[in-house]
Amino acid sequence: MSPLTEIILIAMVTAVACALPGAFLVLRRVAMISDAITHTVLLGIVLAFFVVRDTTSPLLVMAAATAGVATVALIELLNQTGRVREDAAIGLVFPFLFSIAVILIAQYAGNVHLDVDAVLLGELAFAPLDRYTLGDIDLGPRALWLMSGILGMSLLLLILFYKELKLATFDAALAATLGFMPTALHYGLMSVVSLTAVGAFNAVGSVLVVALMVAPPAAAYLLTDRLSHMLALSAIFGALAAILGCAAAFVLDTSLAGAMAVVSGLIFGVAWVFAPERGLVAQALRHARQRQEFAQAMLLVHLLHHEATPQARVECHPSHLSEHLRWNAAFTTQILHRAEQHGLLERQRDLIVLTESGRRLAVQTLGGEG
Asked: Which keywords appear in this protein's UniProt record, sorted alphabetically (predicted)?
């Protein structure tokens, strides 16, 4: 397998591993907790390093994941006081813990490979150089094995606890009533998020971890109302961001993590604009349709009010409707044409008159029984 193929595979597996738990973060409206976790895990790494003095020890991963869960606990502790909102609690906790880690590195581990920039930005291009070997057998990049294991664990937990996670996400009170322990599920989810962040940031950096945990699920959320479909779309969008981001980075000779983050944002942007129900285009079309329906109702009520009256020859004349309804001529013509197409009015000589259907709709609009 070529290094290029290995880089793309690592990026894809990492993206999918981040997108799956990220979907629940988006649904629970705590997406930016991923940002806090990806920064504060550095404190766990630093503290564990001071104990074992070995940057390759598995204890660093365990300590980092523990620091991520502790971050969530501190944020919720502040939030539960009722004096600090959750967004403010995040802004208080993670800079504090991350800054402690930075100071400890600068003061006591300056000659050790605990590079803050590498943690933030990562370097996916170097991931294939760190190989996993068994004797003389080269089994491939260590990052690919690590992220594949984390992805497999996430999928297994998702399959085992899908119903519980779904219920706890959408109705925590009902989940508690049924004995599903939503608090335990919440911290279990945050543990998975922490472990995923720890495994991913060595290759892609915390900035891309946040992008992959938020952007693909947010795009999927705009396209579907079913959790299973959202999870599938999140994984697809994450993998697509990895492939297109790597391709763009190779062509432009730029940062792989940066290109993947940009593509993730672009995927969300496309969904945000063109989503069938929640997209900007759909909302604009729905607003225009509602405006036309309201204008049509106003026209029918106007005609009903003046039909069979001495003022009908003026009030119901096409050339006077714009003046009386205060519409421009083009909009008046558009609404007249729309109402005619729906069989709500018709032209009789030089007047606009209601059909039976139009009269019935006008009465209903006014609150009558029609």
From this structure: Cell membrane, Membrane, Transmembrane, Transmembrane helix, Transport
